[in-house]
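Example noted here:
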Amino acid sequence: MKCIAYRGGYKYQLKESYTVEIFIKPAKAIETRFLRLDTDGKLTIRDGYAWDGPSGPTIDTLTFMRGSLVHDALYQLMREKHLDHDTHRETADRILQRICREDGMWSVRAWCVYWAVRLFADPAADPASTKPLTHAPKGCEA
């Protein structure tokens, strides 16, 4: 039987690699299949990266997309234990707020976005929150 394994929950897929300078500077470079964070704080998100966009009761506007991409990548690095959750989560949330403001989001909305992730998004950065692996078709379960 030919089987596939996949994870669900994604709405968007990056079609060109994207690089941004951030405030998080690890002691040694972090390299995964789709993400690279160097010691100078240069985060590269590679072509093909999938993310779920802005989460919660919100609208996926153009002023929110780049921030959600970077924020989801940083939370993934925390879930995968490349970055320490306790040390870097608040900084990741501030980076989201900053990028949203840079992209033209109203300051009040960006403030609400920041507080929403501070209050409700902690589980998304937790290593125990990895999306489950699904196998198809039926009978392919590991």
User: Anything to note?
Assistant: The helical segments are 62-79, 85-102, 107-120, 122-125. Residues 87 and 136 are 38 Å apart (CA to CA). The longest strand covers residues 18-21.
